[in-house]
Amino acid sequence: MEEKLRDHIKKIVLLTDDELSYVLLHFSLAAYKKNEFLIQQGENVDNCYFVVSGLLKLVYNDKEGKQHIVSFAMEDWWESDFSAYFTQSKAKMSLQCIEDTMVYSLSLKNYQKLSAKLPKMEHFFLQKSNLGFIASQNRILSFLTSNAKERYEQLLKQYPLLFQRVSKTLLASYLGVSRETLSRFSS
Amino acid sequence: MEEKLRDHIKKIVLLTDDELSYVLLHFSLAAYKKNEFLIQQGENVDNCYFVVSGLLKLVYNDKEGKQHIVSFAMEDWWESDFSAYFTQSKAKMSLQCIEDTMVYSLSLKNYQKLSAKLPKMEHFFLQKSNLGFIASQNRILSFLTSNAKERYEQLLKQYPLLFQRVSKTLLASYLGVSRETLSRFSS
């Protein structure tokens, strides 16, 4: 398991073995079953998560009980309700397992500690944050410029494997269309 | 002018006078007239910008010549086509002045240099990036969960001053609705 996180960090910064051991002390490994929640809407957000294996959805449930998927998270992705995590406010979204999932969790206190103690890790977090920011700027752009069918095709092209692991109902909720509309795209 | 940038950085990290002087060496101040472009869609993105005064729009022009506003940027905001900036690829969007505007520009080379030489600045950039990431995650959420009228009301509540400075046509383009639809909200 440690190799996954080490290899992931190594793509951005090279840590010595001692530094890596120190970093790993601040993460905890946890296993969740399909349908289990890591974050519950309305509750505290203690951690952000690095996905070792499995698949999750970040969802917002509206007052009518309708589910909106903000993002999926699979192997090598970081996920949380980052707004609630960084500002230590209540979660606006839930993070729930679509498959049995294994994650490394990192508390905000440990995120801040690693950033402060190890410049390499602050650099790593900056790169990840910039990549996350870029991805979300691109998603905003796709909402403004593409219709649901085009967003469907972009997703299929970018993450072909996701389509084999996610139900049509979840895909529709991610794209912001009904299940029936989605069926027309994929037929 | 320097005070604006100094005060902005000071909200997150305290720099000594020497550090601040060093930081300022890496920024250049520039003035642009209303309608001038800082970034042109399809061209290189040399800088990200800290807005000292004025107002800008980050826009995507589609094949039909329709303009989509991804974000506005006013005093104390940072703006760029961050995807193109960080990956040094061609701009997918344009950054254009809505008013006469004064900015501090920062090249990627200087961004990287400041991050590497001054841990305080890497920390500052990490905080800004996380805030930008949070804001865009919130905007994605609002696209999924709110209709155009609700997004209009959220914007009015969050940035009341923007409404006095931006035309109805630009607001409509930001919200992703027609000028006629917008008139119904505000009447």
TrEMBL record, chains A, B:
**Do you know which InterPro entries this protein is assigned to?**
cNMP-bd_dom (IPR000595), cNMP-bd_dom_sf (IPR018490), Env_Response_Regulators (IPR050397), RmlC-like_jellyroll (IPR014710)
Domain named Cyclic nucleotide-binding is located at 15-114
User: Could you tell me the superkingdom of the organism this chain comes from?
Assistant: Bacteria
* MF terms in GO: DNA-binding transcription factor activity; kinase activity
- Signal sequence coordinates: none
Answer yes or no on keyword Kinase: yes
Asked if the record carries the keyword Nucleotidyltransferase, the reply is: no
Tell me a GO cellular component. Answer: cytosol
Q: Which UniProt keywords apply?
A: Kinase, Transferase
Its protein name is cAMP-binding domain of CRP or a regulatory subunit of cAMP-dependent protein kinases
This chain's source organism reads Cellulophaga fucicola
